[in-house]
## 1
Amino acid sequence: KNITQLGAHPGDNAQVRHVTDIRVHSGYDTESSDNDVALLRLDATWYFSDYVHPICIPNITFEEVTLNFSHCFISGWGSTYYGGSGVNRLREAEVELIDQRTCNLINWYSGMITENMICAGLESGGVDSCQGDSGGPLQCYSEDQGRFYQLGVTSFGYECGLPFKPGVYSRISMFSEWIKKTQERSASEKSSQSQVLVILSAGVVLLQIRQ
């Protein structure tokens, strides 16, 4: 069975849960990575602790502007350089949000970035998600609300940390209605089971299934 770990840091803090159901977005395109989002149902709830916290998601794209995000972070267990191996300790890095118009410039991603995607990194490169980080969060702090929001899910990039090639993330605000409807449908179908759902990259989910 597929499993997921919450709060997996060195020590006895991890909460292990089995995945009982997987919902991949019906519009997921394996070539363009558009609509690269999926939901996992877990067999039991988790317990909030110093290592496990809930996070808010923006309901509409407009909130990405009005919530006044100041600092954005990515995290994961992936390699620290292109072609490298994963790490055994969760790592994080601070990145900057990059607007769609800039990210679609010819020397950047040349029109590949859809409205369902968001770019984050540095124009000069050097800070990026990498192989093994797919499915991880892009989270930003709202000065106005005093809390973090998950803006994206790590989707793809060109190698790692190159100039003009920031990481590309599935834009959560574009999927808020899909997430809500999927939760409601899932709850009505299996009301007796746990309704805990986790947001993940569809590409990662399908890769794990094929393996």
Note: The first strand starts at residue 3 and ends at 6.
## 2
Amino acid sequence: MASSKFHFAILLIVISLIVNVQSIRVMDDSSDCEFKGSCQTKADCYERCGVGKPPFKIALCEPYGLSGRVCCCV
């Protein structure tokens, strides 16, 4: 009985380590965004990002720290 509890505890530790490594990979600080000023809605970013014109094809209005929301051009 103690052996199965030990194996279960080891399995939980291994799973938690795998999940932790994956979450660190997701929280990578590198960004594909080019920030182009403040916004309130996604539509505010269309002209700034040049939606439909290369090289930017996507405009997002994203929260950015304490400075409110900014246009993220991808």
Note: The radius of gyration is 21 Å.
## 3
Amino acid sequence: MPPFEGSDISALGLSNTEAEGFEAMLADREQEEVTLEMEAADDSLIVAGASADGAVAAARVSDASFKLIVDYETGGKAFYELVIKSRPIWPKEASGVTIGFGYDLGYVTRDEFRSDWAALPSGDRNLLETCVGFHSGKDPATKMQMLLASVKHIIVAWAPSEAVFKAKTLPKFALMTQNALPNTGLLSGDCFGTLVSLTFNRGASYSKAHNPTTDPKDRYREMRAIKAAMISRKFGDIPGLLKAMIRIWVGTAVETGLRRRRNDEAALFLTGLAAPVVASGPLDFGGDAAAADAGATAAAAPLPERAESVPASQPNDENFWTEVSEDDLAAEAENGLSGGILAGGATWAPDNVQPDYAHLGGNLLQNASFALKAEDLQLLAQLNDFDLSGAGDTVLFGLRGCGVVKDHTVSGGPILMDQRPDHNTPRCIIGVWKRATGTVSVFPASTVPNQAAVALYKRNRSAGNILATGLHSYVCGPHITSRTTPGCFLLRKPDMSKRVVVVRRSTDDLSYQKTDIVDRCAPGDNIHPTFFSTMAGFSSLGCQVVVGTFKEGRHSGPWSELRKAVGFTDNDGEPGKQFRYMLLTGAEARLASKMRIDGLAADPLSQRRLRRLRQGSSGQRVDQLQSKLQLAEPDGQMGPFSTESLHKFQTARQGARGSDGIFSPEMDEALGWGVFSTVGV
């Protein structure tokens, strides 16, 4: 009989094998716990129920770790309601009948159950009480099947399950973790919550001795090592130990699920170890000015809804911009001035309010290095529904907030650093992806405006924007502002009309946040050199710029090398040739790289973390999203109008604080739209 018979597995894009894997993972958790409870030498580790101390311990669990635990204990809200159908299950192995958020009736007392689930209808509670104390660690399968059949009709909804989990179950396991490990008070909420997740899955087995006769794998080796690391305060060892224990499940039915969980726990623990990011200047995240900007458009005359371009003669940002070079700075210094040309005071917003990062969740790990492969770029294109079928062999890509540790000339390919931009120096990369050969070339760059541009728009609304992430179309041609630079990449159509896209602008402060202006316009955000030969600065109104110059009739620096990687052999390049430009963040690239290294790039539950619809996405899912947004004549293309419409919808939602124009599985699940067909964490 298939698992969760009668459930809507196909609606979530799951196979029976994947559903069986989840059921097996629950069962493995119970086997770990029953083994501990039967053999534990320290009875203090087994907590009967919630207590005041437990509530205090649970309060230290961060929101991110709480979500991780809930998603792995239930499969997520969509899985719980569509597959489990909010009903009791029996995961077999050593488990009992299980309800709600992993609440196993086999391992609680009757008094504990009555107290925890007092809000259930009395008839349902009385029936479920008959299952208390029975589990397949000691009782035959026939007995367990009979018990499940007697309660299978009972609905235990998500909301009361969550309430019991927060009030009863989480305090119990948080206190078990605190009692089992020293120095937990020195950990952040992410780190402590990670260890609580581990205790949920494996019990508080941090002191379990090795018995070679019954345990040839030494299953608790890493658990003991985690306790030793806590004693010695070597907290940095713990992420590696979490990943090391994956060895236990290699070749079993639960390998993929527990590989995913251990990797997620390791990543969250690392995040908790990282120092918090503090903005370098005051940021305004509220107030009337921010609210007035939310979801608004710039003061220019509105474009037709479906406009994809505007005439080349129509003024835009580039018509009001004066390029600044290192020569200009030298002249400024020679005249006894300092910093006036590039000054502005702009700051980069924290991840949780920055439009490019907020959808990934707050408190992301930063300053971590990673290897970038062509497979990672392909995965990112796939998960964003970016259609590259007509892009040809050469695809340009930008990673906002990313540094070059080792470039593509080093054996093994590029090593990059996930970091954040600052509007002062180039802290991004722009690269060339040759799809036929799978080669990736990377160059130091900036994908954000410089200080002066951020300040200029705030001052007079003439120029200065940040291009939204997504898939964009460019054409080779001369970049013309206060100077002319041949052989660049222009945000235009082959007829030289200016492409319409969505950008962000700010008038209330010098930082780009989710509450800032959403502008559907033709900004002229071209790809050209920084006009600096070093990393000291860059010139950009919102353009995508690569370190290097064009002086005395010659391209130079990394900019010149990028043009060679594209295939350009002279100053003009190939005028009129079209290119696709995939702009994402270094954080997303790092996560894609991690999925590949962890062997989870093809895992549908892991893929969900990076699956998005945004500007430039296309296909059936976009068509569905357009229909849900009630757009006339859905065409399956996430163009500027559809992207703007998503911004407006997000801004109008109750309790919203702005928008990011990115549609995620979490938003899809919250709305119940069913645009995405995969589930996970």
Note: Residues 16-39 form the longest helix (24 residues).
